[in-house]
Amino acid sequence: MPDILTITLNPAVDLATSVKRVVPGPKLYCRSPRVDPGGGGVNVARAIRKLGGRATALVAVGGAMGDRLCDLLAEEEVPTHAVRVRGETRESFAVTDETTGEQFRFSVPGETLGEPDAARLLSEIAAAAPVHGLVVLSGGVAPGLTEEFPQLIQDAIAPRTDKLIVDTSKAPLARLIAQPRSPLLLLRVDQKEAARAAAHAMDMIADSLTFASGLVARGVAEIVVTGRGAEGSVMVTRTGRFLCQAAPVPVRSKIGAGDAFVGAMTLALARGDPPEEALRWGVAAASATVGTEGTELCDAVETAALFQTCSVVAF
Predict the structure, then answer these.
(1) What element of type H or E holds 186?
(2) Where are the alpha helices (DSSP H) in the chain?
(3) What is the pTM for the complete model shown?
(4) Low-confidence residues of the chain, pLDDT below 70?
(5) Which of 43, 55, 166, 173 could form a disulfide with 4 if both were Cys (CB 3.0 to 4.6 A apart)?
(6) Which residue of the set 71, 207, 259, 299 is catalytic?
(7) Which residues pair with 241 in a beta bridge?
(8) Residue 9 DSSP label
(9) Where would I find the H helices in 51-114?
(10) How far apart are CA 85 and CA 112, in angstroms?
(11) Cβ(42)–Cβ(61) under 8 Å?
(12) Catalytic-residue membership of 117
């Protein structure tokens, strides 16, 4: 099976806690927090580890909080390639209202990186990219890096592999869509970002199918997946269009669900599974993750069980 490298340009140490009721004004006394390493590529690598695979997590880290993040990854036995950058790695936190079940998620911006940081990252990514392996760029691009940075990563790894999977947002995603270079292996776009890119709402499954089909036709990616929340995920390849329905599970926390999806789908593709089967694994892992508390990710046994309930429909 080919090696997998994940890239996180703006990681975080994630804290998740709960309080009886979230109200403005008085001091709120929370439960003891759960602390996890976080950020898109970090969670992708963690999910792959939980599902029985192995991926190296390349992370841009700084300061004492960056050390803490690396320690947390080591505790989970996730191989880590730390790239030191300026400043301090950020924290993010989530608070669940125990009375209503609502979850409040807070994310602070990461440190603004400079040109030396960008050059160091590209150099180390180029050196770490597995030959003929899979590279996953997941999560936001750190402040200070240009919107074309995902494409610079694509250029940097090209001598070793052309299998780049991307799950990002905002201006870097818009750039990938508007000015594609060589096709990505896979691009995942959530429902909100798809609506932004298409300049209209993704109200119907047909809207997602049309959007994804257009990206494949224009050479943005060989496989395009768009999430549809509780409905599941739409996938378009060069040979087919599919919907995989999500497993019916109670939603406790949405943190990391998209990352678990990418991790499970990446692992399945690395095993040689066809895209339709990889899609089922992705949806099953996402469903398993939303059924967990706080920042916890999917469980292998639960994911395998939910895989049996995730059906794929061709269009």
Answers:
(1) strand 184-189
(2) 40-50, 63-75, 115-128, 149-157, 170-178, 191-198, 205-217, 257-271, 275-290, 300-307
(3) 0.95
(4) none
(5) 55
(6) 259
(7) 236
(8) S
(9) 63-75
(10) 10
(11) no
(12) no
